[in-house]
Amino acid sequence: EKERTLAMIKPDGVFGNYTDKIKEVILESGFSIITEMVVQLDEGNATVFYVEHSHRDFFPGLVKYMTSGPVYIMVLEKVNAISDWRALIGPTDARKARISHPSSIRAMCGLDSEMNCVHGSDSPQSAAREISFFFGEMPGGIVRHEE
Ligand code: CMP
Fold this sequence. Notes:
147 residues, 22% strand, kinase, Nucleoside_diP_kinase, NDK-like_dom_sf, nucleoside diphosphate kinase activity, five-stranded antiparallel sheet
């Protein structure tokens, strides 16, 4: 059964020019990119997107990071898309990813546990919420094209 997940290239990945390389890895790994867009998050929508982390001490830094520049949003589709995308990006902390998952995307372009270059939905519930967040509640990306 095919499923869909939300993938995001965070501001450090976009600024570091990793978008094309990451899309190449995505397509080589058998995902279809259903839709994609560039979005500049503001404090309000970054806070809503990461509301489950709002009690954490890293939250203010996370919001600052996520609003520091544009993010590249994609909806990915394949069998097992949600867990396969999480596996492909690797552990949250890019320093750990470089040791335990050296071929992961975070090992390639992430810096540490905060600036980790990419995001992926962690469950079917998060995938549904995050896809509707960007493509329902929060329209208005800078570039958008659908296949
Ligand atoms: P992400 O997978 O998008 O989900 C939550 C984000 O919070 C995470 O990636 C990191 O960018 C950030 N984050 C998670 N843990 C930490 C941490 N210990 N310190 C700083 N930022 C974190």
